[in-house]
Amino acid sequence: MDRVRLGDVLSVLLLAIILLGNLASALPRRRLLIPGDPRTQDFDSDDGQEEEDVPVRLPDDISVTEYYIKIQPYYPAPGIHLDEGRNMTFDGSVAMSVKIKRPTSEIVLNAANLKISSVELTDFLKRPVGIKETRLNNKTEQLSILLQRQPRVGSVFVLTIKFTGKINPFDAAGLYYTSYQDSEGEVHWMVATQLAVFSARTVFPCMDEPAFKAIFHVELVYPSSHVALGNMKETTPVDLGNGWSQVSFPATPVMSTYLVAFSSGPYVSHSVINKDGTLVRSWGWRGQENFLKFSAETAGECLYQMGLYTNIKFPMEKCDHLGLPEFLAGAMENFGLIVYKYQFIAFNPDTMTTLDKIGAALVICHEVSHQEAATVRTDREKAMARDASAYTHPLIAVNGPYFDPITYEKGQMVLRMLADVIGEDVLQSGLQNYLQTHKYSTASHWDVWSGLTEICEDEGIPGWHGFLNVTELMEPYSLQSSYPVINVHAGKTGITFSQERFNDISTQSPSPWNYTWIIPLRTAGVIYDDNSLRALLKKIATDDVPVGVKIALIGDEVAIVKRNKSMKLPYSYDRLLDILATVLNTASKEDPSSQLVDIALPQMEFFASLLRDSIDAPLVERLFRRIFGKVYKSEIWDAASTWNAGQNRDAVDLKIYSSTMKNVFLPHAVRYNIGDSASKAQKYFSEISENCKLAESNNGSAWCNKVPNDIHRAVYCGAAKYDNNLGANFARLMFLYNGEVKTNPYYYQEYSALLEGMACTQRAPQLKTLIRLLLTSRHRPSLIFGWLKKNPEASEALYLYLKTKSDSVLQYAGLSYYLDAMVYNWRSERRLRQFNELCNTLLPKMNDKQKRAFDTFEKRIKDNIEWSKQHLPSILRWMYDELVVVGKAPWSKRSAYPLL
């Protein structure tokens, strides 16, 4: 990571400082809800409903500075005998120093789903202190210990509690179990903790709020055949006999309960020492030994670079990165033991693409930086579109944090603005001072702004009156939703500016700033009037314009359309189509930017969805050829795309561009027959078939496939769509898929690419076979049925399968995703009648949840019909004018007959 790239760290770091400080200082009063399994969640799920308010905050009468925790988990492992009823349970004990801060005769801790077997309170001379009563309130998740006498303020006691608990499934957090199956079919178990945000209380009684920080001493009794890991580097284990060992971990730094972590399982590792001398280890399960090097090296470099930026060396001897078969989130930044879904840690070069590698690096560095309080960067176009909706909210919540795209994406924009105002060096210096001042303590976003205000005064950064007051500048951006639009007024006396909010705030709370902002002026997003836009597009069509201008044009126009739509103002897509047709179809000294393609493709898919199920469907292919005709280059298939962490930034950016074009753009090029993409795909598939045929492979395609992984999705789609052998290619894809699932069940990238490729078939018999397979797939329904949305033949196939095999579809956990794919392109009265007739036929078989799902999509079709009546004629006029030119071009006069 070079100096230029380090400039991006400032926004990466500052946003999470604000978020984590806010989390620590303002806990929500509602109970934490655990999200359901994404494989079983439906559109009409009730999982998002909040529970009744309960007073979960602890009284601030005591403080705990240290915990001594001992846990023994019982789970299947070699050499272990489990007594009846003990499987997936644990024994535990905790001793803690308790200081009385305010007059009270009650010690209140958090505890949940634990069976308390004993409670003992002593003074520091080990003399017993009388306990009157112990109560566990499962509703408030609080353990109350009533004392016989009220102790003096300032008294210090040792509280010891013994308990038992349950080891949960992975999606219930706390101490949970997971497993993997080896090539012989044997199941291997492991246990780990996920204590964020309020699950430490399910593992040991404690003051389980992020503001209550302490030092933690952990002992773990675990199966001797396994490896034990914790926040700190493990000491030499002691053999207890009977297949058990005990390990002690050194004391942690001062930290919150939700960062406590430990795990045991059949682990293997790869380790490196980074430039700061920190031991960095990547851990996976047995059989992954050869796949852990990349993640260890990447994590070591990210940790070192964060230390350079913050001027704080990582304070622990080691930092572990553990990949597990199942995990509730993508990853969790436990101090010293970061836990991930395994695909971010174990990189299998036979199945994973360059984008998979880049994605893993981003997640690893994201989590490493979270240990210093950080988050990922993004681009402003996405943030503007998010904040343009009716569901916008402030960046920072007074009563608790948001963790969603508005927080991350809009937050990055705001922080980059601040960096532009005060300078990156000043911001970096201010953050270093802040982190040192509040090390191992609790802080909020006010502390960040106040600290930066002080350094602005020291550095002489001017403001609107005196030195810059960062708090006054940033609070309106932090605590208000929406963002400002600046109107520029040119008159005889000069230029004046005014501001207004970007979107409708009628659903938002009143603001003390009345939805106004202090605005450092700098040209960024510009709302052009029609004449100005035409002039700009003319310039783009004739001159080489920086790609950033092109990206901004698309992103700004998308945000404006979304804003107007949410505010029920008039809007049109003609301008967006003009922009797409111009910025992607002009020569440039630069290669077509992967970000430009990335932001254009969702807009193109939107227009395609309007026409796929209509008589105008042929316009879709013409539109893609028109927009992307000059973007597509035959050599994209062959360009090198290997990416290594040691390369300089220009080389890495080139590889990222190449990989994005291969992984993201080429499947669209093949699907819409742009250039020679169809023949290229078939050529490479013939090569794959020949290699795997010669190898007589019954074990899938990864081990015998010499074609670069980055183009597999495009190759397999082309093989299925342009199959001239009466389904022979589809049959071959299915054969390879079945072998790949058996051979590489955990490295899903290759068999996922095969499955996605099969979803491109245009043949009804093959689609029927595919649908039957998808209904039994372990892939997320939203993903696999999402592939079928882009196939114009799939909706009818889905309809016929539901009509003839209704029982299997109605009982499918992802029914809503099935229906979503079926009606995704439907926007006609004919389709509405067809849907209603099917619904009436199936009604006697449906339960209430299924009926609600059908009601949802009936409304979707009706809404699509009404929307199309209003907006589709204008879009079609543009397409016929631009894509179906007959006679003179442009036409010399309007046709006397309606085209629609």
TrEMBL record:
Residues 67-259 form the Aminopeptidase N-like N-terminal domain. It comes from Ancylostoma caninum (Dog hookworm). It comes from the Eukaryota. This is Aminopeptidase. PANTHER family: AMINOPEPTIDASE-2-RELATED, PROTEASE M1 ZINC METALLOPROTEASE. Binds 1 zinc ion per subunit. One of its GO terms (cellular component) is cytoplasm. The active site is at 367 (proton acceptor).
